[in-house]
Here is the input.
Amino acid sequence: MGNRRVADLTDPTKSEPSPETTVDDLMVSPVHTVRARQSVAELRELMRELQLRSMPVVDDEGAAVGMVSLTDLMAEANDGARVASIMSERVYSIPRYEKPEVAARIMRNHGFHHLVITHEKKLIGILSTFDLLKLVENHRFVTKNAGTRPRPSGGRGRSETG
Here is the structure.
């Protein structure tokens, strides 16, 4: 199964993430992958065993060619079918040195919860929305254009004297 490297940003003995935090600090590595030619039954068992919500689909050279998620498995996929028949061929990746804000924007704009992390065009990690939530847990967010608080409605808007 390999070792999982996960940044523990909630450990009180560790300092808060710095403004220089990159997706490399948040991603999970190594990445468990599946091949397009494997069966849906194999994929289902592997995801259950590893307790994963998604897996990149790779070619023989290890390049990401697709992504499969629990949602894909919930579809009426025959266990004998190949992973290629249920995978999404849209794979978005960003380099390991990219900022978490960029990853979050890509995920939000495209409506998915996992992003492939690369180094020199090689798959080295995966980042999920749950990984990004570590930054919010540690109050590493800044409110942009914070509006004014609404006035309490304690009666009429104007006094009767004027």
User: Anything to note?
Assistant: Strands lie at 34-35, 54-58, 64-69, 93-95, 114-119, 122-128.
